[in-house]
Amino acid sequence: MEALKLQYSRTTNCTQEFDPDGEYAFEVLCSEQDTRECARLTAHSFSSSNPMTVFKGISPDIYYENVALPLMMSVIDQRLSLFARQRATGEIVGCIIAADFYLKPHYNVTTMSGIAHEDLIADLDTMSYGDFNLEEQLTPNSVLYFLLQATKVGEEGKGVASRLIQLACDYARKTKGFKYAHAQSSNPAMRHIYAKMGGQVTSQIDPTTWIWKNGGSGNEYPFREWSAGPLPNIRIRL
């Protein structure tokens, strides 16, 4: 991936700001207040535009309480997540939540969420975890995992998402030596961004035939009527 020029300045005890002269302030996520705001933004974005969340009718409140907030709080100390703030208003308009894939067992909250597609993603993670270990032993600071990515409703198409992803990749590579990024997405726009960055599909699951082990009797196939195709594991070389 073409290297990006990193320009950042320390703005608080833990926050680093990228592109200090641009329309948006891109910062490393480190405070609980910003994390909660990012979680709320993600919950509203996913409930309105994420194909799987929309398909299952998950409300913003449910997604915030059961997925977005606990997941973000569990990885904030890794200092690998970034967010974009509108400089003129101070409002957070996008975020990319990332973590070290090696540490995945310590931040997997999906089986507690009661949300089917989070368990589907957990099964995809298990596949990818095995793939990385087969090819080269998975070690700390080797694979950057994109857990959640969201842009505020109404702010899509302005380049915020792609810039966040590019900055997150370059920041992780330059500061900690990460070699790869790992992601999944049911959103065509996000898949397009990953493809432009050289992302390759390494494995996938067809949601229509996926068996939900936590679904209980009568709900083993929650995506039987899904029509948007397989959900892939995507790998990007940094």
Can you characterise this structure?
This protein is an alpha+beta fold and 238 residues long. The chain contains 6 helices and 9 strands. It has a single domain, classed as Gcn5-related N-acetyltransferase (GNAT) (Aminopeptidase, 3-Layer(aba) Sandwich). A 9-stranded mixed sheet has the order 1-2-3-4-5-6-7-9-8, with helices on both faces. Helix 1 packs across helix 3. The protein is globular, with a radius of gyration of 17 Å. It starts with 7 loop residues before the first strand and ends with a strand. The model is unreliable at 1-13 (pLDDT under 50).
Percent helix, as a range, is 25-40%
Order of helices and strands: EEEHHHEEHEHEHEE
Shape: globular
State mean pLDDT (0 to 100 scale). 87
**What CATH first level would be assigned?**
Alpha Beta
For the CA atoms, what is the radius of gyration?
17 Å
When the domains are counted, the total is 1
Structural class: alpha+beta
CATH topology, anyone? Answer: Aminopeptidase
**Number of helical regions:** 6
- CATH superfamily, by name, is Gcn5-related N-acetyltransferase (GNAT)
Number of strands: 9
Architecture in CATH?
3-Layer(aba) Sandwich
Largest sheet: 9 strands, mixed
pLDDT < 50 runs, ≥5 residues:
1-13
Question: Kindly, what is the distance between the CA atoms of the first and last residues, rounded to a whole number of angstroms?
Answer: 6 Å
Give the spatial strand order of the biggest sheet.
Answer: 1-2-3-4-5-6-7-9-8
**Fraction of residues in β-strands:** 15-25%
